[in-house]
Amino acid sequence: MKKIIALCFLMLQFGYGNNLEWSKTGHRTIGEVAQQHLSRKAKRAINSLLNGEGLALASNYADEIKADRSYAKFGPWHYVNFPADKKYTEVQPSGEGDIVKGIEKCIEIVKDKNSSAVDKKFYLKMLIHLIGDLHQPMHVGRLEDKGGNDIHLQWFGRGTNLHRLWDSNMIDDYGMSYMELANNLPRLNKSEIKNIQHGNLYDWVEESQDVANELYLSVEEGEKLGYAYSYKYWETVEQQLQKGGLRLAKVLNDLFS
Fold it and tell me: What are the coiled-coil residue ranges (predicted)?
């Protein structure tokens, strides 16, 4: 009973309760895409900090530590909510922090020459994960429905919600490993990659919110979804995974330049 109570406490502490954060496969895909686009200098620095651990393997660390209550303060870093008709910079940020403030803090600590190796490793792993979360559109969803968690749906006859649908259902049911996904994303030329990597963190969060607003219109409460929905929106899944990976590489290359 004590374990059940503790688990419920953790779910409440981390805001969105039963979300799964792009699923392990989604985060690893983003990590692998980023790994393939790192500069040599960034590869060396990251390899040293992570003791040889690749970005794909490190990508789920920020979810794994949720089992430890001492990390509860990092829960709000996984998402952000702001009105659909506003820009992130036009609203008062949460006092508990959010995904934008979390990413900025991670960059600050990893970049600081006075940070310990232990802190740099921890916040680098957090950064890898949070850039991934930023590109799961429902992590920039509406506050009133907990980023789609309160919009209940049926996925191939199984109960789910809009947040979980985009976190894990669509990716996991597609049946590919993270390596298969990463290696079968659309081939882009240098100009297309540069275009995706253009802009800053604030541009990217508002772009994700635009996608989230579209996804809210894509379903109705209680709707039964399956192949037709996956066929229509799988390209969006691929785009978000690819953008997340390429932008993560850009952030890391700049950080370790």
Answer: none
Q: Cα–Cα distance between 249 and 245 in angstroms, integer?
A: 6
pTM of the predicted protein model: 0.91
The model's pLDDT over 124-173, given as tens digits with 9 standing for 90+, comes to 999 999 999 999 999 999 999 999 999 999 999 999 999 999 999 999 99
Total domain count for the chain?
1
Dist. CA 71–CA 74, nearest whole Å? 6
Query: Which bin fits 224, alpha (ψ -120 to 50), beta or left (φ > 0)?
Result: beta
* Structural domain containing residue 221: 2-255
> Which strands, in side-by-side order, build the sheet including 152-155?
158-161, 152-155, 224-225
Which SS3 state, helix, strand or coil, does residue 66 take?
helix
Render pLDDT for 41-95 as a digit per residue (tens, 0 to 9): 999 999 999 999 999 999 999 999 999 999 999 999 999 998 888 999 999 988 8
Cα separation, 89 vs 104, in Å, equals 14
- On whether the CB atoms of residues 106 and 124 are closer than 8 A, the answer is yes
